[in-house]
Write a structure and sequence with these properties.
Strand content of chain A: 5-15%
Number of helices of chain A: 13
Helix content of chain A: 25-40%
Largest interface: A-B, 80 and 80 residues
Low-confidence stretches of chain A: none
Number of strands of chain A: 10
Structural class of chain A: alpha/beta
Strand order of the largest sheet of chain A: 1-2-10-7-8-9
Oligomer: homodimer
Mean pLDDT of chain A: 94
Chain lengths: 350, 350
């Protein structure tokens, strides 16, 4: 990310863990599945220091914390955001407080605590109130929303996400794609990507800004609701979804701005559609967290909304972070060819 | 890796998942801890498509399988190698059989199966015999050792690892480091890195080849034994170790060649030393699997063996793959400042 320093808030070089510079992978299977003209590419953000896109955000926000001499960093998150903030805080030598709910997948708690963060599990609805107290009483630097409203994330977060736009532009041989599809919770990711492409246009490097398409879990979908009603984003009911990383009940003004200004859209996908997309990608060699495949799920669901042209789907996070993991250990087979043959029959291989 | 195609076996471009191009991270904390002159850098191989160095190997070996029209791929592994082979096989549209033991961490079985591989857990000592049967009866392309001897891994595997040497050379502004330290099981990784630097020297790009230092779990250590006795590698007793990814009881001729020819060495580290290295790295923002930090554990244990100069430690794999993960979910705290304050006292933060 330091390569783009001139276009970003000041980064602390010593905090660099290698965020960014993730591959753009051609996906001929998905190109074919769409039935329209154009190519599909996947931007694999699981190939980051803590194996999600959040590292781009936290490199910027924790750098800001260091630069204002904050005594520590605080974040409300039960997943990738918290662990990534913990990693960058550790790198900076700052204590980190992660205020989580107690409903994340078990491996995630190992993940957050590995970096030495103070993990404070609290009832979900109290997360923001407690975070504000940590900010007010201890002076810790907040790197996520300070309110349940979704509009008060750290302003430098989307600045980090801008680098996705810059990289895609470089990887597509100095051109912008026609469409970018991204999983959408609060929508900071897609706002950042949109802003990055707008800047490239302002700099005279590209003529157009891609249509930004947000993909939300069908049980919730505050951005989809705002677009459908023409209103601002409002809280929606907390419908059931297993896509815990993007299952927010509110979007942000910034996300709405990115989608409206780019002529984009919002697509709702069910958990079943997310799972299909997850399996489809894994069978292409790319294993992602359920929430992380929402862009692809949206593409498979609504190729008509996406339309023709070059499409980039952002994949946000490794499959290891999923709540669907089983912790069962397999029973050994008898080491005879007959038993092996029978097992292979079940796998439809032999 | 395609950028280095001229120096590698033929790669199938369509299989590219973005392996390689991992960051080289400065580690001033470790430079200081050594007490000698020179700098320490970390090559973070967890930022690969399946979050380990094995992707470099499997991109080459599965490409070979495709090029000989193999009907499938077979691998004996209960960890990163198996999952990575499964991912590249999936990308190639080839069935993959992973012959595993039943003692890997539970999350690993999800990992391997996500890519659609046929997972065959068998008693550990039968893995190679069954793998040979799969090769002989089904004609599947083998991408790991065909014998328990450790000398019969796919010849293109270390060719993939060579790209680590090429990248380090580029990242150090066209120079070779003085020492490379790597976790060592069969030693294909360190042989490949050594070969890469030898080639750079042959090409006239660098004057010297780094000393290659293998770090093995103290309970086993076949390479250390061979160096100490001046003999070839022989089987050692299966002493206890939790570093399951490198806990082999045999090394390889190739590894011995790399260490001897480069004037390197082998260092044994205990599980406790591995754990200290793991925690040290995590508190620098880098969370790796226990086996993956062996290079750093060796550096911390024996700075005298390592000596002066620029040292690159290879970190091989994400902390999510560790067997030490707990699957307990935390109990929520009471959402009152007094409870938060008490919890923070325990973390020594407030």
């Amino acid at each position: 990310m330091l390569a783009w320093q001139a276009l970003l808030p000041p980064l602390v070089a010593d905090l660099d863990l290698g965020a960014g510079n993730t591959p753009l992978i051609a996906a001929p299977e998905l190109t074919k599945a769409r039935g329209v003209t154009g190519s599909v590419f996947l931007k694999d953000e699981s190939q980051n220091p803590t194996w999600s896109h959040k590292d781009r955000l936290n490199y910027c926000t924790v750098s800001a914390g260091v630069q204002v001499d904050a005594p520590g960093v605080v974040v409300a998150s039960s997943g990738n955001h918290g662990a990534s903030a913990a990693a960058y805080s550790a790198r900076a030598g700052l204590p980190c407080i992660v205020i989580s709910s107690a409903d994340a997948p078990p491996a995630i708690y190992n993940f957050i605590q590995a970096y030495g963060a103070a993990l404070l599990p609290v009832p979900a609805e109290f997360r923001w109130a407690i975070m504000r107290q940590v900010v007010e009483r201890l002076g810790f630097h907040p790197v996520s929303n300070l309110t349940p409203g979704g509009h008060t994330g750290h302003p430098f977060g989307p600045e980090g996400y801008k680098t996705i736009a810059y990289e895609v532009y470089s990887q597509l041989k100095r051109s912008a794609p026609d469409v970018v599809m991204a999983p959408c919770g609060y929508g900071e990711l897609l706002f950042g990507i949109w802003k990055g492409f707008v800047e490239l246009r302002e700099l005279g490097l590209t003529r157009h800004v891609p249509r930004i398409i947000a993909v939300e879990p069908a049980g919730r979908g505050p951005l989809h609701r705002a677009l459908a009603t023409g209103k601002d984003v409002e809280h929606v009911a907390p419908g059931a979804t297993r896509a815990y990383a993007i299952g927010t009940t509110i979007g942000s003004y910034r996300a709405l701005l990115a989608v409206r200004n780019s002529g984009g859209d919002a697509i709702l996908v069910s958990d079943g559609e997310l799972q299909t997309a997850q399996t489809t990608l894994a069978r292409m060699g790319i294993w992602q967290e359920l929430s992380g495949v929402a862009g692809v799920a949206g593409l498979l669901r609504s190729p008509d909304v996406v339309g023709d042209g070059t499409v980039v789907c952002i994949l946000t996070s490794s499959g290891f972070k999923d709540e669907g993991l089983s912790y069962e250990v397999p029973v050994p087979l008898e080491p005879a060819w007959t038993a092996i043959e029978a097992a292979l029959h079940n796998f439809d291989i032999y």
